[in-house]
Amino acid sequence: MATADRLYQLPLGLVGVAIGVALLPRLSRAVNTGDGKDAQGAMDQAIALAMALTIPAAAALTAMPGFLSDALYTRGQFTPFDASQTAAALFFYGLGTPAFVLQQLYSRAFFARGDTKSPMRFALISVAVNVVFGIALFNLIGVKGIAAATAIASWLNVAQMAFGLSRKGHYNPSLETWSRVARILAASVAMGLLLAAASHWRPLIEAPLEAMGLKGHVIGAKEVALLLTVLVGGALYPPLVFLFGGVTPSELKAVLKRGKA
């Protein structure tokens, strides 16, 4: 569980927290000045950009969890059985990754309006659901049930916050945002299919690497095969998401410029 936890925490830390921190000042200014259009635009843009970075990460975690856990961890006292258990948990964490990030963004919409009670109330409900489902699913399917319960509880938390914001008239994702997320999902699925194929055919990828003498080294054939697969998937995703219209090159440039500022 701990090893799977490390992998899904990466997009959460890099994307969810970073974009959430950047979102709050702009959203607070818009709320304080009564600029509803800018508040809507800030949330729409934050969700689109966060999903453009998070959904492909989720696709990778669910498309090749076994490949990831085996190549990264199987050595020494970490056995192939441990890797298979990690992979099972990682798959369900992958399904919950977009929710983990959306929680960060939706909570900012409450904080910008001085409302800290609603997110806390929703979080307590989600924790209770997590505990109940965690115990039930652990008894049914083992360790991976805990990860599945975490994903379910996180999506429930997102649903509660989304409904709460909508009911109060604070925020509803625009149709354009829904469309962009759908296009990001399509690009991510395409990339995920490639990664799943690479995971399935990994012996064919590793064989020539082993023939080059990489077998048995600390950085061996499976590690290099994983690196190559990730690089190919990472190189494929940007043109796909640009082609599908999920994110534009100009938006990406603007994000990079803000990052350098």
Question: How would you explain this protein's 3D organization?
Answer:
The chain is mainly α. It has one domain (2-260). Helices cover 86% and strands 0% of the residues. The protein has helices at residues 2-32, 36-63, 65-73, 80-111, 117-141, 144-167, 175-200, 202-214, 221-244, 249-260. Helix 2 (36-63) runs antiparallel to helix 4, helix 4 runs parallel beside helix 6 (144-167) and helix 7 runs antiparallel to helix 9.
Tell me the layout of helices and strands.
Blueprint: H1 2-32, H2 36-63, H3 65-73, H4 80-111, H5 117-141, H6 144-167, H7 175-200, H8 202-214, H9 221-244, H10 249-260
Helix pairs in contact: 1-2, 1-4, 2-4, 2-7, 3-4, 4-6, 5-6, 7-9, 8-9
The count of DSSP E runs of length 2 or more, i.e. the number of strands, is 0
For the sheet with most strands, the description reads:
none
The count of domains is 1
What fraction of the residues are assigned to beta strands by DSSP? Answer: under 5%
Report how far the terminal alpha carbons are from each other. Answer: 38 Å
Overall outline? globular
Query: What is the overall pLDDT average?
Result: 88
Q: Which percent bin holds the helix content?
A: over 70%
Give descriptors for this structure.
261 residues; 10 helices; mainly alpha; globular
Brief rundown of the structure:
The chain is mainly alpha-helical and 261 residues long. Helix content is 86%, strand content 0%. The protein has one domain.
